[in-house]
Amino acid sequence: MRSLFALKTESIVLLAIASFICGCGAESRSPSGEAHVEAMPRTVANPTDELPPTEGTETYAHVIENGILPVVDHPLSTFSIDTDTASYSNIRRFLLQGQLPPPDAVRIEECLNYFTYNYPPPDGDAPFSIHAEVAGCPWNPAHRLAKLGIQGRTVSSEQRPAANLVFLLDVSGSMNHPKKLPLLKESMRLLVEQLGESDHIAIVVYAGAAGMVLPSTSASQAKKIGDAIDQLQAGGSTNGAIGITLAYEIAVENMVPNGINRVILCTDGDFNVGITDRTQLTSLIEDKAKSGVFLSVLGFGMGNIKDDTMEGLADRGNGNYAYIDSFNEAKKVLVDQVSGTLVTIAKDVKIQVHFNPAQVAGYRLIGYDNRRLANRDFADDTKDAGEIGAGHSVTALYEIVPANTPAPDAEAVTSEPSAPRNAGSELFTVKLRYKQPNDHSSLESQFTVNDRGTSFKEASSDFRFAAAVTQFAMLLKNSAHRGQATFESTLELKDSARNDPKGYRTEFFELVRQARGLRNNSAPRINVPAD
């Protein structure tokens, strides 16, 4: 593997938000909606914008890791699904730079969901299928491990409805880096190549101000769109809020009934003028999401990434969040998985697990630390939750303390079952609620899961690979629940990478070796503030 990122000091060309040169000029607009045709003016950035982003200004939200809960007090576990993958590709970027990632950059569920698993597709018109597997827990042999999997139905390019897309592109000074704006432009060109004449693209850019450099245009006009992308240059401060407002306004104006209506925000998340507070920004996005326009957030670059802001925007905007660390990752997200990135097949998807106290003394939801919901929110259709894209899969793991198992620590689950052993043979019951993309009322399904006593060695390769990814993430987080997990024991599971047509699993084990070497050499973690 080769290094994908290198920090370099370089001069930044100070330019306006962008220029679009195509015949008679470019149409620019203010958020008020007034439009006129002119070449967009260039402005001079503030002196502070001349400095490249420095190492150590990245920010990640700090969340408390889920602990083991006693079933006698907490029989229900409720959470929102998450199909984001940004954390894994960001971790890869750190490791290939020769650095261990900061613990708060590691979100276990996003590492799990970076990979596909061999879940059978749904039958008929069902939006997704649901699967479960239970086996031994490799990092704590006294416990059991349960894997829940959701597989979204695929949508071919012929079946995909017409798309109304607005590219909302950050062209501020902080984007002037080889792994930022140039990679962003390559990524957008890739996406344009996947679209057809019934699809339309508008381009909005923002720096200190915002403007529309391309009105909604058929994707069949590839040269016109490509010219608009080619002319983008970086310079100025970052007023993301005004760009968000304009992008959603344009998306609503060009709304396609029963089609794909989506804003694609490409940024490093470093909003430094206008509305800069993360809470206010996410509230703005939450309000805009009511329009029926979905959101995708693509993160770029390094040194000043505001991961906490980008994750929050995607969560509140009925969207998904991916981090683009290379051209190959852009191809994965915008070519190989383009339907999942663009097409939402179910929204506000919530899972509630009801554990049987006759079989379970305690449990821990692994990851999804900031996706937990109050149990009462499960049936409340006003409460927001995650979305599933076409072809996407969602995986979640529970570490389970069987009834009559000695409590491992003071978090302490009771070792006595709170119900008779004949109260039921099921391990737990899973309920799932979701809405169709254009509906406001949810549907519910449920199924029960039994523990057949399968050992970890007897588990499927998918199960063992998911466990390997979880161990790796727990080690990088310095999780208090990592038990007997080590990088060495994780590498022993490399046989689970045999079914690997795209090479992602093989690459994963290379990253495990890289992390082991860095840890053994006492490589320092990058020093970044947590929010």
Give a structural overview.
This protein is an alpha+beta fold and 531 residues long. It has two domains: 26-44 and 160-342, von Willebrand factor, type A domain (Rossmann fold); 69-155 and 345-515, Gamma-adaptin ear (GAE) domain (Immunoglobulin-like), CATH 2.60.40.1230. The chain has helices at 86-96, 108-112, 181-193, 222-230, 240-253, 278-289, 307-316, 327-336, 338-342, 461-477, 487-491, 504-520; strands at residues 26-29, 35-38, 69-70, 76-80, 128-136, 144-152, 163-170, 200-206, 210-218, 260-267, 294-300, 319-324, 344-355, 360-366, 386-389, 393-402, 428-435, 443-449. Helix 7 (307-316) links the parallel strand 11 and strand 12. The longest helix has 17 residues, at 461-477. Mean pLDDT is 85; it is low at 1-55 and 409-423.
What is the overall shape? globular
- Give the second-level CATH assignment, the architecture of the largest domain: Sandwich
Which fold does the CATH topology of the largest domain refer to?
A: Immunoglobulin-like
Major sheet attributes: 6 strands, mixed
Order of helices and strands: EEEEHHEEEHEEHHEHEHEHHEEEEEEHHH
Q: Quote the distance from N terminus to C terminus.
A: 32 Å
Count the domains.
2
